[in-house]
Amino acid sequence: MSHPSLPVRGPFPSTRMRRTRRHEWVRNLVRENTLSAEHLIWPLFVCEGEGVREAVPSMPGVNRYSLDLCLEQVARAIEYGISAIALFPKTPTSKKTAQAEEATNPNNLMCSALRAIRDRFGDQIGLVADVALDPYTSHGHDGLVVNDYVVNDQTIDILCRQAVVQAEAGASVIAPSDMMDGRIGSIRNALDDSGHHEVLLMSYAAKYASAFYGPFRDAVGSAGSLGKATKKTYQMDPAASDEALHEVALDLQEGADIVMVKPGMPYLDIVRRIRDTFAVPVAIYQVSGEYAMLTAAAQNGWLDRRSVVLESLLSMRRAGANMILTYFALEVAHYLKGEEYVAG
Fold it and tell me: For 48-75, what is each residue's pLDDT tens digit?
């Protein structure tokens, strides 16, 4: 009795990875990483005046806002589910000094903005306040300068007072970005001693001396003050990675609640190492230069803006970031709702 011959198995795999890629519904089911507006922190630049909207030329679509218009932007952020905003002031040149006295003025632009937002919106959104002296120094450095060197301990004394006045004005997160040694522990003690035990500390723990910060310095007006000087004696060397783990370990010991890596996409390996080593909340900052690159490429028709922006942020989530500071935050929040975005 003859039997039909069985088909010979071809050289094909039994595991076919494309099965879980064929339909959108299954792609949604199997993906490990997601992006939502809740993962975003929106940096906003604040300036003096009323009814003022100043474009930042090196960051097309990004503006500085006077307090009244800043409140409108915060309302938009709340409407679209963004978790927090990060404020950065453009201090008038007349108020900048070598000793950065304006940084500790309880009525400075930063503190005035914090109070105005807190009075209007209560606890509907997190308020992240930058602690560093570069917006307030005539030389553009993040600390005090003695004999052409940015000194550490004297700078920390001012940072502590700056953090306290910001907490008193309504900041829910104090974010020291100065990279002075020991400042996290000192600021934590200062906040606790002044009764601000519940205020979070988000440490710029691994902040690199990066060439990607240029447009930001234009936005806050520190580029002209800094001139050709660099911040390499206190910000991290881009060639270093083990040092980032040391910095994070120290900041966690000193009381940091969240640690940050800055810049973003060029340092995703650092995010992953921190997340794997410490398993603590990690923030990443998609900085001004990254924003400018993607925006310029999209404006020239070389990249699809919506696609590359979403992909860039998803890469940060995939690397292990819990939260992302990005100038695209409101735009992305629109995209995630299936809406078009018009800058305002």
Answer: 999 999 999 999 999 999 999 999 999 9
